[in-house]
Amino acid sequence: MKCSVIMYEIHRQSLSDQVYHYVKRLILSGVIRGGERIPEEKVAQQFGVSRTPIREALNRLEEYGLIQIKPRSHAEVVSLAPQEAGQIAVIRAQLETLAVSLLADCGTKKDFRELELLAKECNGLIADGDIASTFEKDSLLHLEIARRTGNRHLYEIYEKLDAKVQLLRLVLRLPLEKLKLYVRHHDEIIHAMKLHDKESAVALMKRHVMNQLDDYEKVNKR
Fold first, then answer.
1. Which domains does the chain have, with CATH numbers?
2. Cα separation, 92 vs 143, whole angstroms
3. Which of 63, 80, 112, 166 meets the CB 3.0–4.6 Å disulfide criterion with 194?
4. Is the pLDDT confidence value at 5 over 70?
5. In terms of Cα–Cα distance, which of 102, 140, 104 is closest to 119?
6. Is residue 219 helix, strand or coil?
7. Strand partners for 69
8. What are all long-range contacts of 120-126, with beta carbons under 8 Å and residues at least 24 apart?
9. Please, which residues have CB within 8 angstroms of residue 87's CB and are 6 or more apart in sequence?
10. How far apart are the C-alpha atoms of 20 and 32, rounded to whole Å?
């Protein structure tokens, strides 16, 4: 019975949903980079669909903030200037440290159990080398931390920043071994919140966000 329900959900996914997730993964995996055009015709041929589902998917990706559609022309991945990386990282660090500080105070056993499951999934995906899925799951984990604080406004602000965070990851382009290290940080952060150790949770989250920027800057100064 359980399997039949799962199959039903898969079949219910619309063509535009499938295209949306496919193109998003192409971007997050670095196959299509900032400033590059989305190969709409190739995507249409691959899925055997008309341009309508393609345009619907691209409109969603533009609304999310990963691409921009040029009027009467083409769609391309948003290009984030290197100097913007620091600006986004600083904003992200402020929001993320606020979130873990709040959750360290009010989090329940259920909250931390759910976060631990997401962290485990992130660890498994990065171990398989699936960077696109890791980025998506990582975003879900950080959004979930904000959501579970119960502060709706904090969550809405971070949700709007999420696409910028994804673009930041693409600009940083950290090697796989570095990514594995940062993904493992999640376990330490969640453990600190679980102990209601606000100070440690904040310090760990700040390191998690800002050290990635430091690694990027070290590489690009060589």
1. 2-77 (1.10.10.10), 82-221 (1.20.120.530)
2. 12
3. 112
4. no
5. 140
6. helix
7. 75
8. 122/183, 122/186, 123/183, 123/184, 123/186, 123/187, 126/176, 126/179, 126/180, 126/183
9. none
10. 14
Of the pLDDT bands very low, low, confident and very high (cuts 50, 70, 90), residue 71 is confident
Write phi, then psi, for 82 (nearest 5 degrees).
-50, -35
pLDDT at 114: 98
pLDDT digits (tens, 9 = 90+) for 32-41: 988 899 998 8
Whether the per-residue pLDDT at 212 is higher than 70: the answer is yes
Alpha helices in the chain (DSSP H): 2-12, 15-28, 40-47, 51-64, 82-106, 109-127, 131-147, 152-172, 176-194, 198-221
Rama region for 70: left / alpha / beta (φ>0; ψ in -120 to 50; rest): beta
DSSP state letters, 109-140: HHHHHHHHHHHHHHHHHHHTT-HHHHHHHHHH
Give the three-class secondary structure for 10.
helix
Do residues 202 and 97 touch, judged by C-beta distance below 8 A?
A: yes
Is 60 exceeded by the pLDDT of residue 7?
Answer: no
Q: What's the whole-model pTM score?
A: 0.81
Write out the two tokens for 156: 């809405």
